[in-house]
Every structure is written in structure tokens, then in C-alpha cells.
Amino acid sequence: MTYTDMQNKKIHQGRNIKRFREMLGIKQEALALELGDDWNQKKISLLEQKETVETDILAQVAKILKVPAEAIENFDEEQAVNIISNTFTSNDTSTLNAVNIQPTFNPIDKMVELYERMLEQQKEMIEKLERLIENK
């Protein structure tokens, strides 16, 4: 695939919403609850099937998932896989050596930070569900 082909390739925004939602461990029902009364699990499922998502809905979902809207708009899994594949299958040792550079942050700290964020989101969801149950 040439660079021009990659530029012309459509990003499937709905599928990206699903990817980010699943990475964060958020169920469709929970996302629907966060989006409001007009939303349900079925509507989220349909949203995740759409190639292009309306800008305002995309912004709301991005805010709920705590990711930049641009990440949902631009993430291309195939391109990411190709870049990784080309990096690790290249005979160019300079590329392979670049992978061994020490990061300026501790990866374990980042994992802990992500885990703590996921726990906080789960706690918030539980509290919202409890309030919802109490109101019924």
C-alpha cells in the first residue's frame, strides 16, 4: 500500500470508538448511560458500525472516554500494524537499535496511572448506577 493509498483510506470512526471503549473496559450500556436518556445499548452498537460519526457526538464520546476526539478520528489500526511490522521485520539495524532507546518515563508508572484511571472510572460508573437504582 502506498502513502497515497493510506491517505485516501477512510478511517472507521465507529470502530475506533469501540476499540477505545473496550480498551478502557467500558460496556456499551455504560456509555449509553453517560450519553443521556436518548441513548441505549442498541444505539451505541449502531454508532460503532458507522464509518463517520457526527462531530458533536464524537466530541461527547471522546470526553466520556477521556481521549482526544482526534484519536478517534485518526486512529488507523492497519497503518499502525504496518508501521510496527515494518519496524520489526526490517533488515535495517538502525531502526531496530532505535527501539532499544530508554524512555524518559517509567513504563510501569504509566501502567499504574492507566490502571488507577480505569479504577476511578469504574468507581464513577458504579456510583452513577447506584444513584440510578435509588431514583427508581
Plain-language structure description:
The chain is built from 9 helices and no strands. The chain starts with a helix and ends with a helix. The chain is mainly α. The N terminus is likely disordered. Helix 3 packs across helix 4. The longest helix has 29 residues. The chain is flat, with a radius of gyration of 19 Å.
Tags for this model:
136 residues; disordered N terminus; mainly alpha
Helix content: over 70%
Strand content bin: under 5%
Any idea what the shape is?
flat
- The assigned structural class equals mainly alpha
**Could you spell the SSE succession in H and E letters?**
HHHHHHHHH
Number of helices: 9
For the secondary structure, the number of strands is 0
Summarize the biggest pleated sheet.
Answer: none
Using the CA coordinates, give the radius of gyration: 19 Å
Low-confidence stretches: 1-7, 92-98
How far the N terminus sits from the C terminus, by CA atoms, comes to 55 Å
Mean pLDDT score: 79
Give a brief outline of the structure:
This protein is mainly alpha-helical.
Chart the SSEs and their pairings.
Blueprint: H1 3-8, H2 13-23, H3 28-35, H4 41-47, H5 55-65, H6 69-74, H7 77-89, H8 93-99, H9 107-135
